[in-house]
């Protein structure tokens, strides 16, 4: 993948790199910023029984485009404030700008709403960064007003999710385009079947996808 973030040894799990030719390549590529509603997308993968590799997914979304920045919003369980420390560190290592917040107890569970923070960050990005494309990893219909405002400002807004599951029909309709993550999953697992069965390639890739952090 061309851009500010690349894979290491061709395996899933992205690493941050510095490339002196990045600025030259980016002039001919669409500039993209990704916003990941972590709770929404991770829950969808988990409920559907699909493995999630955050780095591989980010690379897929940015393929052929220049990834300016990637934001992820991670809720923290107030009953176990350090329980997601490893996940947060992994996301930083992948290249995400991590926004985390401790939620509030709600019965036997907890609530942690990022709608306001995520919306404000998208608007700030529109004003300062002025990307060509924003990819929103969420199917939450609460983001529809923000999606429409971004489109009015000339920014293409692509929604990524699972149709009929975590992606509300209204969100799919109001975005500039829709990225079907079920198709992403199928493509990735079909690709695995073409890899040679060796410990250094096929097994490593499969293990990475199966054990990807949620």
TrEMBL record:
InterPro entries listed in its UniProt record: LabA (IPR047140), NYN (IPR021139)
Pfam family membership, one: NYN
Alphabetized GO MF terms: RNA nuclease activity
Stretches the record annotates as Disordered: 1-24
CDD domains per UniProt: PIN_LabA (cd10911)
Residue ranges of every copy of the NYN domain listed in the record: 31-181
Superkingdom, natural source: Bacteria
Protein name: NYN domain-containing protein
Organism field: Thiocapsa imhoffii
Lineage: Bacteria, Pseudomonadati, Pseudomonadota, Gammaproteobacteria, Chromatiales
């Amino acid at each position: 993948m061309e851009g500010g973030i690349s894979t290491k040894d061709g395996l899933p799990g992205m690493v941050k790199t510095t490339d002196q030719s990045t600025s030259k390549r980016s002039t001919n590529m669409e500039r993209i910023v990704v916003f990941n509603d972590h709770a929404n997308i991770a829950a969808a993968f988990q409920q559907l029984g699909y493995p999630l590799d955050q780095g591989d997914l980010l690379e897929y979304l940015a393929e052929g485009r220049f990834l300016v920045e990637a934001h992820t919003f991670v809720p923290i369980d107030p009953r176990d404030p350090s329980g997601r420390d490893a996940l947060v560190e992994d996301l930083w290592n992948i290249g995400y700008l991590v926004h985390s917040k401790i939620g509030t107890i709600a019965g036997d569970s907890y609530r942690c709403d990022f709608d306001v923070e995520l919306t404000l960050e998208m608007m700030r990005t529109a004003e300062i960064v002025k990307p060509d494309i924003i990819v929103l990893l969420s199917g939450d219909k609460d983001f529809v007003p923000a999606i429409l405002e971004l489109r009015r400002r000339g920014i293409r807004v692509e929604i990524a999710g699972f149709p009929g599951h975590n992606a509300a029909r209204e969100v799919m309709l109001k975005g500039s385009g829709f990225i079907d993550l079920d198709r992403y999953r199928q493509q990735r697992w079909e690709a695995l079947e073409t890899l040679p069965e060796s410990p250094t390639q096929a097994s490593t890739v499969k293990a990475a996808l199966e054990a990807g952090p949620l």
